[in-house]
Amino acid sequence: MSTRGLVLAFVILALAVLGANSVFVVTEMERGVLLEFGKVVRSDIQPGLHFKVPIINDVRKFDGRVQTLDAPSERFLTLEKKALIVDSFAKYKVADVDTYYTATSGDARRAEELLKQRINNGLRNEISSRTLHEVVSGERDQLMTSLSKKLNQVANQELGIAIVDVRVKRIDLPPEVSQSVYNRMNTERDIEAREHRAKGQELAVGIRADAERQKEVVLAEAYSTAEKKRGEGDALAANIYASAFNKDKEFYKFSRSMSAYQRTFSNKGDILLIDPDSDFFTYLNKSKK
Description:
58% of the residues lie in helices and 20% in strands. By secondary structure, it is of the alpha+beta class. A hairpin with a 5-residue loop joins β7 and β8. It folds into four domains: 3-63, no CATH class; 67-172, Band 7 domain (Tetrahydropterin Synthase, Chain A, 2-Layer Sandwich), CATH 3.30.479; 187-247; 257-286, no CATH class. It starts with a helix and ends with a helix. It has eight helices and nine strands.
C-alpha cells in the first residue's frame, strides 16, 4: 500500500473515531450532564441521541431510577436521655443533575455517604425532641413524615437528590440497658397479671356466694312446699280416717286391733308382757266365748 493510501486510511479512521465520539445516547433510566473542560454547560439532558464536540465536551451519566440507601445502625438519645439503636433506610433518586454533579463529582458512593450523614442528623433531631414511647409507637409515623419532608428539602438543595421515603426498620435498646428494661417489663406484666387474677378470684367468690344463696333459697322454698303438701296430705288422710271411723266405729276398732295383732306377733321370737285383761286382748277374749 502506498503512502497516500495509508494517509487516506488514517484520515478515514480518525474521522470515524471523531464521529463516534461526537454522539451519545441517554436512556430513559439515566440522567446526564454535558461538560466542557470539566464545567457543566448543559444539565438534565433528555433521553435520546445527542451530539457533542469531541475532546472539548464530555458526558457524565447517572442512574435516574429510585435507589435504596441502607444506613447503618446508629445510637440516638430521646428527650429523656434514653439511648436507642435505630436501623433505617431511605429511598431516593437524582433530581437536579447539575447540583448532584457539583456536590458529589458524580461519585455515587460519595453521594450516599453525604446522604447518610444528613439522614443521621435528621433522625437525631427528631428523636431528641420525643420521648421513648413516642418514638417507638406513639408518634412513629409522624416522625417519619416530618423527617422525610425536612430531609428532602436539605438533600435537594445541597445534593440535588429527592428523598422518596425514609423508614425505620428496627429500634433496639443498647445491650447494657436492654436486660434491665426487659426485667422491668416482666415485673410490670407480672403485677398486671396478679391484679387480673385477684379480680377474677374476687368475681368467682361473689358468683359462688350468689349461687349458694340461690341454692339455699330454692331448697328452703322446696322444703316449705313439701311440708305444706305433706301437711295437706296428712290432714286429708286424717279426715278420711275420721270419716270412715264415724261410719262404723266398731268395725274400725276391730280392724285396728287385727292390724295391731299382726304387727305384734309377726315374729315368733317376740315376747310381750301385758295384762291379759287389758284392752289390747279385748277381741281375743271375746273369741273364747
